[in-house]
Structure formats: C-alpha cells, structure tokens
C-alpha cells in the first residue's frame, strides 16, 4: 500500500486522515497470468493500481488481438471511457504475468469523494493523468513511423522492450512481427 500512497502523493497532497478514509475503500486483488482484469463487453467499475507484474489492453479485431497499452508497476490499469460513462468496455485488460493490484471500487470511491474534498481532488488528478497518458500514446501513432515508434519506446520505456513478447510488442507498435525483427536488428 505504501507504493500506492507515494504514487498518489506524486499527483496531489493527501493528508493522513484522507489516506485513512481512502484506504478503507481499497483492497488487494491478485490475477494469475492470462486472467482478465476487465473483459470486452463488461462495464469498468474499477481502477487497478499495479503493485507487481504487468498487464495489457487489447481489442479483438476480426479474431486478431490488437494491443493498445501495457500497464506496469506503479501504473493504473482501467478503461477510462467505460469507467466514466458506464458503457461496456470495447477492449480487454489481461494479466501477462501474475499481477498484484490494489483495486479502487468506483461506488466506494465516489462515496468517499463526496465526504472528503482532498480525495475528490486526488481522484480528478488521477483521471487527468490517465487521460494525458492515453493522449500522448495516441499522438505517437499519428506522428511517428513504425521505426520512430520503436526508437521512442526503446529510449523512454526500455522496460516494455525487455518484458513484453515480440508478438505483443509488434501488435502494440502496429507492425508485423517480421518488420519489428528487422527494425531491432538494424538498431543493434
């Protein structure tokens, strides 16, 4: 829980009293590798702070899995659109390793936000951070070539290249696995 507390403090100030109130709404949930945190078609009612392991978000497009995001330690995994609108998720979030999370339940979180303005502010900052991260990710697909996307990931997020399978990474970059292999060999 301490890593979550530090993460939240990086977003906004949270007093000991507010933390105590917030912590009553949290619980630890573990997911075995390949287990889904959220399935396509379900409404997302949780935020998952990743304590250990990583997971991926993917769409099923005509039987092909298209990876759109990875969530590692100290990330929050969620479907922001589904969470905000109560509409079914268009994608799945799946554990790629055994994953330990701290789950924020939406209903409980909304109740404590009504009671404590500091928690409400923290919640808004957290959702803004997630939205900004998603926007930044979308921009690299609009502005960069496949090679530039790989170099960007390699330079700024080397843990993705080290931990994610080539199949998932190539899907995430929007290129064929063979193309990814050629890009990687040119970089070495």
TrEMBL record:
It comes from the Bacteria. Residues 10-112 form the Cyclic nucleotide-binding domain. InterPro entries: cNMP-bd_dom (IPR000595), cNMP-bd_dom_sf (IPR018490), RmlC-like_jellyroll (IPR014710). This is Crp/Fnr family transcriptional regulator. It comes from Xanthocytophaga agilis. The lineage of its organism: Bacteria, Pseudomonadati, Bacteroidota, Cytophagia, Cytophagales.
